[in-house]
């Protein structure tokens, strides 16, 4: 066996049906800022209600890709309230906004995910501006507690369930060949892919949602340790430069990057999907669950292909012609 390093990140995870009902008892902060989207605010208020007057305020101006202007607004809100803890209830954008605050103010985050984004398990933050998407790593943004409650995902629409779960799968697929890949995280990656594929193809219900959330948790843990590679760099450029929906972009691009990166590292992923190659398995799964398979269908202008290839090539160690071919195949 080859030598490897595995870094176990700090943080606590609570997983189980109805576990979110007790989230208030896990919070020691006295000035809690609750973050949620307007749509998710009723749920957030219900879960935060036991905190009583320890809730210092709410922030609901959450936007996908965390625009810098929104991040600045959120930081100002937390600072003005004298917040000492952040309670983020929602998907990746909500957690991402909490991370923007934590990056600036060093406040602890308690995350209650309602999608399969996985951001809650990672020390990775990201923000977008006119210059595109900027990302970084800092333990200051890693949530100190994550509460996974499958019942909170029961109302997630099928279309969003599919793309969010495929986005999670991208963390695991890339995790087996990324720079920080190691035998421990690769084992988790394979288990994650199995759980996500099983949950997506099962009859919708609490058991399927539990499998999906379990897979997403593992995928986030893989991404946190193994890091990202070509796939995430492509998707960050496309999402930041062309305002494409985050999860759907990952869903469309994933099989094409898997084909480009095909090799021994991806063989366990292919096996988990019961396919000859990872790319073949991902394409077949996408067809079965009716996932989006075209960048054009999710809002990308094909006239921007050459420009997009140039933007991506500037950030990766891959020839621009190869990137253009990969993106063309995903149109």
Structure, described:
- Residues 161-313 form the Fe-containing alcohol dehydrogenase-like C-terminal domain.
- Belongs to the iron-containing alcohol dehydrogenase family.
- This is Maleylacetate reductase.
- Helix content is 48%, strand content 12%.
- The protein has 331 residues and is of the alpha/beta class.
- The chain folds into two domains: 12-153, Rossmann fold, CATH 3.40.50; 158-330, Dehydroquinate synthase-like, alpha domain.
- The strands form two sheets. The chain has a six-stranded parallel beta sheet, sandwiched between helices. A two-stranded antiparallel sheet has the order 6-7.
- The N and C termini lie far apart (40 Å).
- The mean pLDDT is 95.
Main traits of this protein?
Maleylacetate reductase; 12% strand; alcohol dehydrogenase (NAD+) activity; 331 residues; NAD; alpha/beta; 6-stranded parallel beta sheet; single chain; Dehydroquinate synthase-like, alpha domain
């Amino acid at each position: 066996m080859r030598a490897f390093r595995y870094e176990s990140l700090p943080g606590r995870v609570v997983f189980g049906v109805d576990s979110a009902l007790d989230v208030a008892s896990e919070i020691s902060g006295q000035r809690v800022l609750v973050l949620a989207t307007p749509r998710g605010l009723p749920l957030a208020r219900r879960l935060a209600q036991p905190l009583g007057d320890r809730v210092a305020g709410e922030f609901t101006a959450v936007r996908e890709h965390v625009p810098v202007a929104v991040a600045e607004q959120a930081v100002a809100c937390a600072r003005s309230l004298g917040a000492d803890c952040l309670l983020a209830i929602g998907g990746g954008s909500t957690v991402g906004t909490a991370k923007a605050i934590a990056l600036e103010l060093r406040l602890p985050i308690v995350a209650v995910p309602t999608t399969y984004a996985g951001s809650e398990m990672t020390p990775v933050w990201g923000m977008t501006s006119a210059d595109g998407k900027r990302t970084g790593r800092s333990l200051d943004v890693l949530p100190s507690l994550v509460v996974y409650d499958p019942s909170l995902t029961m109302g997630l629409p099928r279309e969003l369930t599919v793309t969010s779960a495929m986005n999670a799968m991208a963390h695991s697929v890339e995790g087996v060949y990324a720079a920080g890949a190691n035998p421990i995280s690769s084992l988790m990656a394979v288990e994650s892919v199995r759980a996500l594929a099983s949950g997506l193809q099962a009859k919708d219900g609490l058991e399927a949602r539990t499998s999906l959330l379990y897979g997403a948790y593992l995928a986030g843990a893989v991404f946190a340790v193994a890091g990202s590679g070509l796939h995430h760099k492509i998707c960050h450029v496309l999402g930041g430069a062309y305002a494409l929906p985050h999860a759907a972009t990952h869903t469309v691009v994933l099989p094409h990057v898997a084909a480009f990166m095909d090799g021994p590292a991806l063989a366990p992923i292919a096996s988990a999907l019961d396919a000859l190659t990872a790319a073949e398995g991902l394409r077949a799964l996408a067809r079965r669950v009716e996932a989006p398979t075209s960048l054009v269908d999710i809002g990308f202008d094909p006239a921007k292909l050459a420009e997009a290839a140039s933007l991506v090539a500037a950030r990766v160690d891959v020839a621009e012609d190869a990137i253009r071919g990969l993106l063309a195949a995903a149109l």
